[in-house]
Amino acid sequence: MNKFNRSNLTPKIISIFFALTIWIYVMSEINPRITRDEQNVPVEFINIEEMRQAGFVIKGEADETIRVRITGRRDEVHRIARGQIEVKADILGYRPGVNNIPLEVSVPGEVEVDFNPKLIRIELEEIISRQKPVNVNIEGTPRRGYVLGELDYQPTAVWVEGPESLVNAVEVVQANIKLSEEFENINTRYPLKPINSRGEEIPNVSLQTAYVNINIPIDQLKTVSVNPVVETMPAAGYEISSISVEPTTINIRGQQEIVNLIEYINTETIVIDNIDENISRRIALDLPEGITVIDTPEVTLSIEVDPIVERNFEIAREDIEFRNVAAGVEVDKSEIPAVLQVRISATETLLDTVEAAAINIVINMEGLEQNQYTIEPVVEMPFLVERRAKQIQLIPQSVNVKVVSIDNET
User: Fold this and answer.
1) Are 221 and 260 in contact (CB under 8 A)?
2) Collapsed DSSP state (helix, strand, coil) of residue 6
3) Same-domain pairing of 182 and 199
4) Are residues 107 and 37 in the same domain?
5) 287, 290, 293, 299: CA torsion to nearest 10
6) For the segment 104-115, what is each residue's pLDDT rounded down to a tens digit?
7) What is the mean pLDDT of the chain?
8) Taking a C-beta distance cutoff of 8 angstroms, is the pair 214, 175 a contact?
9) What are the E-state strand segments in 197-349?
10) Residues 336, 317 contacting (CB under 8 angstroms)
């Protein structure tokens, strides 16, 4: 080395030293080393799909987080965005149960990284499939005067697949129906939801069948009368006084087009002969197809009989009514018996309502001039008695009447 080069070496070394010193100063004062903590950095689980295909999933929510500490020059540390911090846990190859999974943290740049915890504990469980019953929950009511018929739905059970703990928590697979003034039959599909024992929906499980086909007939209500159908013959000397049922009306239900045509419901036909006493018995209703009774399918049939008796009523001669007597003549009643009898054959109940004052004996004198006549009087009485009486007989059946001139009488 020549003398000139040796003389320049020392200043160069000194310059390098001063430059290094200045660089160290600048780096420590202007761009110092700093530490930055990031809390709750989410952990990304990898190979989840591969494990699912193998029949395993993470139990619960896979939302673990850790703390990450980054140390380095300020400009390097600040350059790192939170989203660039990657925390990964590879679950491939682990078995069901509790597992400690090591974490891998990566950040860009020339920085030092520390994190806590180093391991994360997760529980793996099997994916299972089990059949669960279908339940249909109905809220609300149909229109007034209508009622729900028998619920029918398909399927009645569906397969639920998912993590074992979640599938086991499923109590039923439920469809919810909300009614509001419906009056027509319901026949549609409703979505199904997996529900636990508290009525809460279970997430993260899948249903093999997502819908249920539901059929609910909506029946119309109606109050109609009961018609007794009786074929009966009273015993000799008796008469049927009444045939009745209790209750007289019943409440029925059925499809609207059927119910609208019905005004009454017949009883089953009852045949009874030679009745000589009152009868009461339970009989069934003859319901048309598609009609049901809300109250009771039977009614009480009552048949009442009355004995037929004869009773005589006395009518005085003075109470006989002569109608249409011609002018200038009058009736001589002297040959008419002082008392006439009206014999009525009828039920005892009917005869108890008859009074002699209500019976009228009438002789029609129309066209009769002065002479002697034998006439059959007419017996008049209340219409109900006259219609229901078995026989009405006047004793004597005929009377002698003389028509005389008023002048001759004088």
Assistant:
1) no
2) helix
3) yes
4) yes
5) 10
6) 999 998 899 999
7) 90
8) yes
9) 206-207, 211-216, 218-227, 230-234, 238-246, 249-254, 264-266, 270-275, 279-284, 292-293, 298-316, 321-323, 329-332, 339-347
10) yes
Of 262, 286, 307, the residue at which a domain comes to its end is: 307
Rounded mean pLDDT of 364-391? 91
Tell me whether residue 143 is in a domain: yes
Considering only CA atoms, which of 362, 400, 394 is closest in space to residue 378?
Answer: 362
Residue 186 lies in a domain: yes
Q: What is the DSSP letter of 358?
A: G
> What is the pLDDT, as a whole number, of residue 410?
44
User: 187 to each of 152, 177, 212, 343, how far by Cα in Å?
Assistant: 10, 12, 11, 72
Tokens describing residue 27? 């780096």
Beta strand 157-163 pairing with 193-195? unpaired
Q: What total number of domains does the chain contain?
A: 5
The answer to whether residue 149 sits within a structural domain is yes
How far is residue 339 from each of residues 231, 316, 318, 333, measured CA to CA in Å? 44, 5, 9, 12
Helix locations, 311-397, DSSP H: 348-351, 383-388
Query: Residue 301 is which amino acid?
Result: L
Write out pLDDT tens, residues 44-80.
Answer: 999 999 998 988 999 888 889 999 999 999 999 999 9
| Residues pairing with 38 in the sheet | 68
Read off the pTM.
0.59
**Which range of residues forms the domain containing residue 15?**
1-27
If you search the block for the tokens 């197809």, which residue do you land on? 289
Taking Cα atoms as reference points, which of 221, 142, 207, 125 lies closest to residue 180?
Answer: 142
Question: How far, in Å, CA of 252 to CA of 222, rounded?
Answer: 5
Instruction: Look up residue 344 and give its two tokens.
Output: 């009525």
Q: Fill in the amino acid letter for 399.
A: V
State residue 60's pLDDT score.
83
Residue 322 in tokens: 């002569």
